[in-house]
Each structure stands twice: as C-alpha cells, then as structure tokens.
Amino acid sequence: MKRLIGRILIALFLIILSILTLGPLVWTVMSSFKTSGELMLQPYSIPAKLQWKNYADAWRLGNFSTYFINSIIVTFISLLLMISVSSLAAFGLSHYKTRFNHPTLLYILFGQMISAAMVIFPLVIILQKMNLTDSYIGISLVYAAGGIPFSVFVLSNFFKTIPQGLFEAAQLDGCSEIKKFISIALPLIKSGLATVFLYQFLWVWNEFTIGFTLIRSSSMRTLPVGLYTAVFGVLQTNYVVAFAGTVMVSIPTFIIYLVFQKHLVKGMLAGSIKA
Prior knowledge:
Blueprint: H1 2-32, H2 36-41, H3 53-61, H4 64-95, H5 101-110, H6 116-129, H7 136-160, H8 164-172, H9 177-188, H10 190-206, H11 209-214, H12 223-231, H13 239-274
Helix pairs in contact: 1-13, 3-13, 4-7, 4-10, 4-12, 5-7, 7-10, 7-13, 10-13, 12-13
C-alpha cells in the first residue's frame, strides 16, 4: 500500500512539473496563431482560426532571415572550432599519460567556473584590439572558448573507455598519431561527440548575453539578439507576431533535440559510468 501511495505521489509530482514546464510553451504557441483581439479577450482559449500570417509578418518585420543566417554561420564556426580543439585536447590528456595531465585538465575545467559577466568587458577590449568586433570569427572564437572546458571534460571520459591495446596494435602496423586519432578514436566516441554537439548547439544557438554585448551592428545580430531588439522595437505592440517570432527561434532547437535526444542520454550515461 505504501509503495502504491508513493508511486501515485511521484506521478502527481511529475504531472504538475510537466504542466509547469510545458504550460508556458503551449500557451506561447497557441498565442502565436491568434489575432490580437483573441489574445486580449480570450488569452487562454484555442485559436478560432490559425493565423499563419503572424509568422510571415514576424519573418518580414523582424528581419529574421538575416538573423537566421547569422545564427547558422556563428553556430557552425563555433561548433567546428569547439569540437575540433576539444577532441584533440581530450585525446591528448587521456591517451598520453604524463604527470601534467591531471593539473592541465583541472586548469581547463576552471574555465567552466567563470561566468560571462566576469569576462565580458575584457572580451570587448580584446576583440577591439584584434579588429574582430562585429565579425563572425570574433563572436565564434568567444563561444568556442566558452564551450571548450565542458567539451574536454566529456570527451576525455569517452576516450578513456577505449582500450589502449587498440592503439598499440595500430602503432605496430605503422599507424601515425593523427591516423590513430581520426581512424580509431573518433569513430569509437560517436555518442560522446553527439552529446557535446547537442549541448553546445543549444547553448550557442540560444546564447544572448555575450551576443548582445559584443554585436553592435544590426546586420550581424544572431536570432536571440534580433528577437529581443524586434520585440522591443517594431513588434513592441504586436504581441501575436512577437509570439510567432519566439516560436520560430525555438524551432531549430526543438528539431535538433528530437534528433539527438537518444544519443544524449546514451552518451551521458556511457561517459559517466565507464569513465
């Protein structure tokens, strides 16, 4: 009886938590398909007719086509740099055993403890001196550097699960260090790479504070920054269109999460248990 009551209480807790989590999301999507009159008079009702025009207006008035392209470019460059550097660093720290491995890993992980607010002004000065302000490479370097500590930590745990005998056999066959990394190590940690990719994609795509501070030109804004300026600008009084813009910004994140969620759970469990 006690076990049954416990299960019921857990189920009720999860239901309430799901409602609190999904409720605002569902309400935002419903509001994005309403007219302004419906939103004001019946804010919690189902739309009488789906207003797809809200999405077209948000795309046009909010200049989302430019922001979308900027986000794709910045995210691609950031993830490419982040995963390339992190995988090489993690492979070196896990494969080559030296007394400096542990201190080096700790030093890298200290970067995870530094918040964006602590370094935002030095970053502005550095980018100005390097003439990288309002550039794809400038903001991408910042994002890549911010994501390296977490990525190195996760990938190093996956590299440690690879038997050293594989590398020793490859070395006897004349395999170079680069070939061992590309042909043996990387294919064996696909779930780890997928985990890092998903986490870092969600962060870079939705990041606001750094982008808002470092991006000054309107033509270089990413989607979160562009949405903010649009909501408090041209869409300030057009709430249904603003809701439509919010939903559009979230769609890529939702799709990527659906595609990689299985790899995420599998990867995090494998990395934590076998490390």
